[in-house]
Amino acid sequence: xxxxxxxxxxxxxxxxxxxxxxxxxxxxxxxxxxxxxxxxxxxxxxxxxxxxxxxxxxxxxxxxxxxxxxxxxxxxxxxxxxxxxxxxxxxxxxxxxxxxxxxxxxxxxxxxxxxxxxxxxxxxxxxxxxxxxxxxxxxxxxxxxxxxxxxxxxxxxxxxxxxxxxxxxxxxxxxxxxxxxxxxxxxxxxxxxxxxxxxxxxxxxxxxxxxxxxxxxxxxxxxxxxxxxxxxxxxxxxxxxxxxxxxxxxxxxxxx
Length: 256
Description:
The chain is α/β, with parallel strands linked by helices. It has one domain: Rossmann fold, CATH 3.40.50.1360. The protein has helices at residues 10-25, 42-50, 77-89, 109-119, 156-162, 181-185, 200-208, 241-249, 251-255, and strands at 3-7, 32-35, 59-62, 64-67, 96-97, 125-128, 150-153, 175-178, 189-194, 226-231. The chain has a seven-stranded parallel beta sheet, with helices on both faces. The protein has a three-stranded antiparallel beta sheet with strand order 4-8-7. Helix 1 crosses helix 2 and helix 2 runs parallel beside helix 3. The longest helix has 16 residues, at 10-25. The radius of gyration is 17 Å and the shape is globular. The two termini are 17 Å apart. One of its GO terms (biological process) is N-acetylneuraminate catabolic process. Keywords: Carbohydrate metabolism, Hydrolase.
């Protein structure tokens, strides 16, 4: 069963996620972390940075990347990863990948990214956000639950959500490369974060709704270790939230 942590502050979510990351990374000498961009994971990176850990051996694989932005564009996910994650955490830039960054043909970029993840021994822990449409990565509604890294078209809703990072919506790319849902499910641990009332319907559908490609995030129900960390507003439509609070508070007993 998916574990649910309902927190008061985003900083609390960051600390919980940081604890999970440290535990996951301690299991290997050359651990691999799945990186998510955007505003939602920022408390996680801040909590990790506060610990002053040596993360120089950590390999990173980003969830997704826009297609069509010029090299060095500040809103490319390569730039965002470098700015928000690599620099603050002291990661080795040469060990951090985003889809399509190897310069090869776009048509085979997904297969090459999958091969790189496999060569690294898989992803130990994957950080995730969730879109209002229920997407994880850029796996929009209708995505196969067995999908692998591939080229995808973005929905108008996702482009509208991301337009705040650009001068206008016409500048938002129409396509991306994204890890597939099957790729995401291969990670050892999944940590999904969501904040705010706008995410409440998607969170409820992902955690308590049916397993369906109409809500790609519902695939986390299949995972052996998925942790969902949400604030009160994002948890507002969860029917069993009182039980989730009890189960989270007593998780040490359950694991003893």
